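Hi R.,

Here's the chain you asked about this morning:
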Amino acid sequence: MNRKVDNAVGLYMKGIRDGRPREAVAKYTGARYTQHSTGVRDGAEGFVAFFEPFLARNPRRDIRVVRAIEDGRYVFVHAYQSLNDGRAQWVTMDFFDTDSDHKIVEHWDVIAPYEAATPSGHTSIDGPTDVTDLDRTAANKDLVRRMISDVLMPGGDPTRIDHYVSAESYVQHARDVADGLETFRAIALTPDRPLNYDDIVLLVGQGNSVATLCRANWQGAPYAQADLFRLAEGRIVEHWDAAEAIGPPSEWVNSGKF
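And the predicted structure, written out as C-alpha cells:
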C-alpha cells in the first residue's frame, strides 16, 4: 500500500477498530476534514464527537478492510464491520480525497447491511481482492463510465449491456440479484424499473478495479449508490455494491451526502 491508502486504512483501524479516534484524526487527516456521512460533523472534532459514543455503544468490534484502491489523490476502501459479536453487520464503501501530504481531507461513504448469502451463494464481500492489469486502468474506467450512462441512467441504451458485461462470467454480490448477464439484462430492460442513476459523483479506478459513487433514486426517492466492479479482458466480470437512502436535509449535520 502507499501512504494515501495507509492513511485511509489507518483511520479505520486506529480510529474505529482500535477505539482511538482522536489519535487517528491527528495522524491521518489534513488541515481540513470535510465530511459527507450526514450524521457526522466536519472536522477532526466532528469525527471524535461521533465515534466516542459509537465506541461506547459497540465495545466489541471486528472491522476489516477487504479491498483498497488508489487513483491519483483519491482512495476507495471496501470494509466490513461486525459489532457486538455480530448483532449488527455492515458493509461500507468509502471514498477519500487527500492533500499534497497524502493526508485525508474529505470523505464520502455508503453503508448497507451485510448479506451472508446472495441468490447465487456469495456474500457482500467475498471474491478476489488483488489489483491487477494496471495498464488497463484508463480503459476500464472509461468502460464503467459508459456502462453507467448507457445501462443505468434514463435516456441511455440498456440494450448495449453486452458491450460492457461479460456473457461468460458475471459474479453478482448485490442483495437479491443472481449471477449472470441475463439477470442483469432483465433488470436493466425492465420498464419503469425502480432504481435509476442520476449522475456519477466520483469514479476511482486502479487496474482491474473501478469504484463509483453515484446520485441515484429509488422510485424517485434520493439514494446514494456505491459500486465496485472487477473487469477482465474489456468486460465487467464481478460486482459489489452498497445503497443508502438519503434522509431529509433537516437531519444532516454537514453539507450533505455528496
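Residues 137-152 form the longest helix (16 residues).

Let me know if you need anything else.
M.
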